[in-house]
């Protein structure tokens, strides 16, 4: 793993909310810390209401993590575009985040409960 990336279990229970709905709650979330960036919580897909997440055509590449795919959230108030991302086939050094989704905290609420 790149020296500046650390992945560890996120302690406690984490929840993600958007548009007035709970999209997921997990005791199995991961915390990814990359350099000086704020920690990012990755939720296992099994702990999310995937029916509210719609894949988009947006993608990006990180030299350390790999190719990211994006999701919009289907909310009552309307879609929240590209609010989440996942590394479907992450680089081997960060393989722990495979099967997980992270959310932009300026578009949804991610908090420890």
UniProtKB/TrEMBL annotation:
Residues 15-105 form the DUF427 domain. It comes from the Bacteria. Gene3D superfamilies: Domain of unknown function (DUF427) (2.170.150.40). InterPro entries: DUF427, DUF427_sf. PANTHER family: BLR5716 PROTEIN (PTHR34310:SF9), DUF427 DOMAIN PROTEIN (AFU_ORTHOLOGUE AFUA_3G02220) (PTHR34310). This is Uncharacterized conserved protein, DUF427 family. The lineage of its organism: Bacteria, Pseudomonadati, Pseudomonadota, Alphaproteobacteria, Rhodobacterales.
